[in-house]
Amino acid sequence: MPMPTNTLTGSVPLKLAKKITENVNELWESGEFLELVTPTTKDLLTFWFCEPHTTNREINFHRGQKQAILNTIYLHEILKVETVLDIYQKVDKMLLNEINIELLAKEKYQFAKYAIKMATGTGKTWVMNAFLIWQYLNAINNNENKRYSKNFLFIAPGLIVYERLLDSYLGKENEEKFREFETSDIYKNQELFLPERYREVVFAFLQNSVVKKDEIGKKVTGDGMIAIANWHLFMLDETEDENPFENPSIIIEELLPARPGKSAGNSLDALDNRYFRGSEIEYLASLNNLIIMNDEAHHIHENKSAGEVKEVEWQKSLNYISKNKKFFSQIDFSATPYDVTGSGQKRTKHYFPHIVVDFDLHSAIRDGLVKMITIDKRKEIASLPLDFKAIRDEKNNKPIALSDGQKIMIQAGIKKLEILEKDFSKLATPKYPKMLIMCEDTEVVSLVEDFLLEIGINADDFVSIHSNKKGEVKKEEWESIKQRLFNVDKYDKPKIIISVLMLKEGFDVNNVCVIVPLRSTASSILLEQTIGRGLRLMFRGKEFEDIKRENRIRVLVEKKSPNSYLDVLSIIEHPSFMEFYDRELASDEYGIDKNIPKEGQSIGDIVKVELKENYKKYDMYFIEIEQDEEKTLELPQIDINKLEGFQYFSLEKLKSFILKGETFYSEELTVKTTFGDYQVNADLFKANSYNEYLQKLINIILNSKQSIKRGRKKEFPILQVFKDEIIRWIDIYIRTKLFGEPFNPFEDENYRILLHRNNFVTEHIIKVFSKVINDIHMNLKINSAVIKKKYFSEISSFNARSTYLLDLQKTIYEKTPYPSNKGIFEKNFLEFLDRDSKVNKFIKIMEYKHDFATIIYFRTDGLMSHYYPDFLVETDKNIFIIETKASKDLKNPNVIQKQKAAIDYVKRINNISPELRDNKTWEYLIVGEKQFYNLEKSGADIEDIANNCRLNELAVRDTLF
Fold first, then answer.
1. How does pLDDT run across 870-923, given as a tens digit for each residue?
2. Domain Helicase C-terminal: where (predicted)?
3. Among 165, 627, 774, 938, which lies 20 to 30 A Cα-Cα from 490?
């Protein structure tokens, strides 16, 4: 973004940020970056920014967020900067010649301090989340490294941002005012933020360590703390020349007045609050280490008047908190990290000297991350010499009426809003555009309300945010305002939001499409903050990407009026401020819109496509296989008495073979001479010994690969189930059936019969129960496959560009889309299907809508991913899953992986009962572009296409080799 030339520090901090970015990108591209950081940081960066993780999930950090994270980690971990001056010295010393070095000697720059300059609406909160995770995990995994902390302080500029931070880390409030952690940013987006092995510990930290502003120093947390407060907590009463933290008498005087009294403002509640306000700062100052993340950090700028520079009061608190710590760092986030002095030609921007990344509004608009800005210059406005300020009473300067210029601006905004409302309501998922009126002061708000009622706007169509000069609202009003204000995207009313300072930051809704700034001064910070309220994207679906990209080219490059108003922010501006826009924004960051759009124009060629009246005739389904058809072993009922007993010898005869006690003998070690047999009487057979015998017996039986059936040996798989039941059967068999009479292995050393060295008894038991195992294998139960049929008609409508729609007969929708970019092959294939008499019906699978029509496959790197085929086509005998590919893509390794998964998928479908698949055989076809055109030219039909393009396991194997 081109910056003004009349600055004290010029664009030096932005030059610094550019140099840091160049160094970082060079290291990153070479692969060296990951080798210079801690193992924990390497894990995180690999997961956040490297393949295959980035392509294996639907959400990722955009390039601005990535740059902010990498630049900060580069300075902190690789360069190990200690102060802001250190950043300049280690990155580019020459820049120190262009700034006042005395500035960097101030107390507030004597620690690791980084400013993140990112345009409003580009996701600063996600970067804050990443920094918290990076610092916390390094703190617990690198105990010896003192550059990390488990203590965090998030500072918000006001109630709106404060509530947003609580939502981010604790989760949103439900109807019972209970915060649901599952709705918090990091938990909800865990696939982006956290490798799986770190999730449990980070979730536990978040759930147990968040401290609200009134709990700081009071709430006990575990190992670490996430304190969230707004900057008002750190405001102190001004003293002439003394620092209240260094003068105990001032603290005593502040906290201990002579006596309580409501009339003096010294009620017990007030005294309590004043005491704890000091204790909160003292508590934060007492911590050994702390990371401060300062949201909307332009509030920390210095006051400059009459050539005197004064620190804002709450910065003094931060300076005090930072003292005497083993580690302290501050990360400031702002779209406008500068202060402004002077006016007109003497107007000067003073950028924060510690800016380490600059992702400006120009970059955000070009990347399509925020709405495109157009300034509405109406002929009727430009032709009239109207005033843009409210009419004021000459005596007290209070506003008494809106000027004609303000009224026309409001009416122009309402006209634009009405057209957007009508058009956006025609979409498959209706959207509710909103208009924001920014008033010059609180007293003008009521004048705007009166004017809206006067021109016929209903009272429930607008909502007003009354705030004091600090942009604060009374506590009792906040809850009702919050519920109505922060849900405006979901409902058609209110349509218009009127505010002064309250909504200049943190009002993060998506549907503000029209802004009417009724200003009285030309403030560059207020300009960017006002624009920021409408920058967040309203249309995020893939179906809108092409038309929005074309629109950006038309407005920003070709300098023409937009063809559509999807994610276009219209600012109804007075002509007196056009020079202001030219000065503050680069000329290619906004467009000029001189025409009120006609109804239907605001959504361009986007139309809503619905089901045909006779869609059931052409409806199709995709099969989700929840469980394949399987055969399971059933445990049969066994009658022990029918099993064959041991018949070679009686039990008495067997006992006569066995000697009592244990016999030992001595053996000479060298020539092995034996001598002196002797016996030792054994104790009774122990239960654990018998159990060990049974365990060995069952292992022999179950792990044998053979069983006996009808006198012949037959192979069967090793049995892995019913082990406990079979042991129980063997034990009962031994005790009751084996010898034809009761047998107790624990009496009179009977166990010796089972362990005789000839093993004839044990062999008999194995033989008997091998037959039992074989019977189990024959006792199969067949479980039918469990499937779910997902009908495509469940998606009853979608948005598409009318320019890229076909009117086809054999499909469920009124129109069928094809890709706007290089989609001629698909277009021709669709028309071929529609005219082929052998095709009964077909569907074009839209990934962004038919998300159920997916096949899981494993990429070449081993990670799981989703594959969405192009078409599903039905004939009398078959259902074809068809992928159309340009010839050059057919050898791509991941395309082959998709093919293997699709072949396995149709094989599984064809294994289920025919009636579950309507007696159709499923097949998978890969249709190459050249192959299709050659076949079509020769008069081929879908069956000919199938014969030539059918893919099976053998074909894929041949492709791999």
1. 999 999 999 999 999 876 666 778 888 888 899 999 998 998 888 888 999 999
2. 419-572
3. 165
